[in-house]
Amino acid sequence: MDNWHVGPWEFRSRLMLGTGKYRNFEEMRAALEASGTEIVTVALRRLDLSNPNQPGLLNYIDTKKYTILPNTAGCKTAEEAIQTARLAAAMGLPRWVKLEVIPDPTYLLPDPVATLEATRTLVAEDFVVLPYINADPVLARLLQDAGAATVMPLGSPIGSGQGLLNQPQIQIIIEQARVPVVVDAGIGAPSDAALALELGASACLVNTAVALAKDPVLMAQAVKLGVDAGRAAFQAGRIPRKTQASPSSPTTGLANVGG
After folding, report:
1. How many CB atoms lie within 10 A of CB 105?
2. Residue 159 counted as an annotated binding residue
């Protein structure tokens, strides 16, 4: 079976799904089921930690079926992200974190310096760190050197649905990677997810494209198929692109039909 690894964990599904923006928890739960995902990201700042016994997001996620990946969405500094990760561990969640440090509310681009700083601190505290970054090959190498378990370059801005605008940089990151590469942000359709996997990414993380679809459950299923097709295409090996046509039929050994 074509499994992949993040730190000490092994997974079959190469689709990670977010939990934000759904119209209701029931719709979210049905989409998770349809997607076949095994990793579900949860923003800690969405949880009502002052009332842990009140029904909320975590009540709708079957922790026997899904591995919860806490994320630091909403954190603007390295210090905030580090404290949020520590809080997740204190709550008994798995000791890993999708690290997001985003100070800019307009474009929602991650802070590379703060992300690297927080990664170094959390790795030293035995966290498995999955940093969300711009599609920056140099930063990706530095994060791997710092002990990151994956790198998660954005395809295009969060929630934009623009697809893989950063494809050339993502290809370089994949070529140089020593850890799994997870394409995160900007995926708007199953074809975007398929392309990410065709390039050699280990997985992709999708939220808005599913949650805000007219039919999130059907879209979750469609994205799953896109991921599976992309991975199969990568393993099969696509033909090289050529500038000229190439006939499908052989040009030698043909029967002579002349007079």
Report:
1. 7
2. yes
